[in-house]
């Protein structure tokens, strides 16, 4: 099973551990990831600046993946939501599709809609499957409590995203519990992390993040778990800023799902980039060692 990997713009710069852990987990599970150097930005940042450029950037990535005859895999909710939206738009609107294809033809590319945009959670849940992953697990996190954060664009709009039920999702929770950890209930689970406001209204962005951190902590979580570049930046890098500026007592480390799953699959913490997280998650390795010793 192979996919073209669309590396989110943020991951090579500030979230290298997301790429490292994804590469390691997919290799362990027998999934091949193809790097296509010509792939560019998903177009998400352009949507409110130039709609045409936004659609073209996304369609170009889809066309490049079609050229390889492979589905396009992403680790970012914004990339996923954007690719699903444009793919849906191009299939429904022939005039936009023809206009985009005229431009793509200059590079020898064409969008036909023959491949799908996939999120890493979608591939793990639907293509590999819960039971197949369980068979590969060698270490479990029994007793660890995790607050799963789905993020907005993997769920909504539901007609476009088509990942899980938008108001009562469970697939990410099931994937977390493959590791033996317990996915807890928490009231702000489906609320925004605050990332879209960062750089526009930082105080409001921090308010949203602080509210989620406090709720997850009060609900008993030991860690947050995410599978989105922007959500991880908010809960890790921005949380570190939040802690320094406001000195809140709701410190709650955020672990990327491939890091959590990777540890359960027996992959070492260095390969998974645990030390790269700004709010330390090193205690999770101690948890495993303590569990084994007991």
Report on this structure.
Helix 11 links the parallel strand 7 and strand 8. The model has no long low-confidence stretch (mean pLDDT 94). Helix 3 crosses helix 4. The longest helix has 18 residues. This protein is α/β, with parallel strands linked by helices. It starts with a strand and ends with a helix. It has 14 helices and 8 strands.
Set out the fold topology.
Layout: E1 2-6, H1 11-14, H2 16-28, E2 32-34, H3 51-67, E3 72-74, H4 77-92, H5 94-104, E4 117-119, H6 120-128, H7 130-136, E5 145-148, H8 158-161, H9 171-177, E6 182-183, H10 202-218, E7 223-226, H11 229-246, E8 254-256, H12 257-264, H13 269-272, H14 283-293
Parallel strand pairs: 1-2, 1-3, 3-4, 5-6, 5-7, 7-8
Helix content: 40-55%
Indicate how many domains the architecture comprises. 2
Distance from first to last alpha carbon: 38 Å
The assigned structural class equals alpha/beta
Strand content bin: 5-15%
- Note poorly predicted spans: none
What's the architecture of the largest domain, going by CATH?
A: 3-Layer(aba) Sandwich
- What is the average per-residue confidence, as pLDDT, rounded to a whole number? 94
Major beta sheet summary: 4 strands, parallel
Strands, total number: 8
Order of helical and strand elements:
EHHEHEHHEHHEHHEHEHEHHH
Strand order of the largest sheet: 2-1-3-4
Specify the CATH class of the largest domain.
Alpha Beta
Shape label = globular
Q: Tell me the radius of gyration.
A: 19 Å
> What is the name of the CATH topology of the largest domain?
Rossmann fold
Task: Tally the helices.
Answer: 14
């Amino acid at each position: 099973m192979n996919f073209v990997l669309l590396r989110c713009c943020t991951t090579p710069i500030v979230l290298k551990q997301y790429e490292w852990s994804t590469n390691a987990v997919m290799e362990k599970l027998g999934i091949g990831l193809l790097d296509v150097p010509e792939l560019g930005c998903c177009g998400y940042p352009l949507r409110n600046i130039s709609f045409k450029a936004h659609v073209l950037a996304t369609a170009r990535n889809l066309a490049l993946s079609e050229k390889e005859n492979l589905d396009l895999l992403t680790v970012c909710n914004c990339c996923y939501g954007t690719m699903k939206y444009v793919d849906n738009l191009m299939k429904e609107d022939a005039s936009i599709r023809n206009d985009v294809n005229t431009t793509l033809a200059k590079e020898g590319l064409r969008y036909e809609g023959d491949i799908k945009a996939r999120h890493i959670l979608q591939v793990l849940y639907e293509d590999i499957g819960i039971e197949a992953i369980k068979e590969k697990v060698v270490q479990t996190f029994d007793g660890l409590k995790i607050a799963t954060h789905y993020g907005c664009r993997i769920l909504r709009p539901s007609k476009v995203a088509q990942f899980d039920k938008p108001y009562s999702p469970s697939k990410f929770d099931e994937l977390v519990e493959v590791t033996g950890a317990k996915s807890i209930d928490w009231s702000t689970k489906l609320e925004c992390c605050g990332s879209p406001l960062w750089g526009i209204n930082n105080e409001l962005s921090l308010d949203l993040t602080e509210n989620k951190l406090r709720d997850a902590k009060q609900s008993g979580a030991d860690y947050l778990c995410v599978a989105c570049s922007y959500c991880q930046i908010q809960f890790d890098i921005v949380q570190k800023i939040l802690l320094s500026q406001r000195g809140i007592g709701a410190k709650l480390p955020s672990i990327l799902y491939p890091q959590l799953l990777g540890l359960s699959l027996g992959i070492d913490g260095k390969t998974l980039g645990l030390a790269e997280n700004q709010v330390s998650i090193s205690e999770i390795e101690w948890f495993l060692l303590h569990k084994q010793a007991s």
